[in-house]
Design goal:
By secondary structure, this protein is of the alpha+beta class. The chain contains two helices and nine strands. Helices cover 17% and strands 29% of the residues.
Length: 194
Amino acid sequence: MSGGRFATTITERPVPLGVVVGHALVEVSDTMEPVENDDYASFSARLEEGVGVVQVSRVAVGHPNGLALEVFGEKGAAKWEQERPAEFQLMLNEGAAGTRGFRRVIVGPDQPYFAGGLPMDAPGVGLGHNDCFNFQARAFLEEVAGIDEADSLPRNASFDEGVHNMEILAAVAASAAKDGAAVQITPQRAEVTR
């Protein structure tokens, strides 16, 4: 991976006079305090087949709790936004070029993470961001209970996958400390049989 960058664009902020969640507005005092964390971070990664780019910002106006994923490949593209968790956009390289474009796909009981887990397993019934925590908890409990993966939600990330994630974050910090220089990451270890 390379191109690690951290930036603190706002170096001091007024002290809030109340509890603030996200980008909510609250009365502030005249007292300014230094900002001790980064407002922006980015990096790029060479993957086994392709390249990935990650950008994060805590000061991007208009995205109070935004998370977006976009994937582009030879057969098409897909994108998902956390603000609309019950749908994703899909574009396939099929048909005449003039008729290609993204189409909206509603998430529902046909997708493995939600099958049998919605209060009402009906297509087109949306779900919210907080519902996803219920699915995560259910997947964990099904695994702990020994329910076969074929009969349960897909498994949560393993401890090894969590460690690998921390190794990636350490490499981003190392790249940023070296003005974006490339940093080698050890490939993720093979999945341990559960």
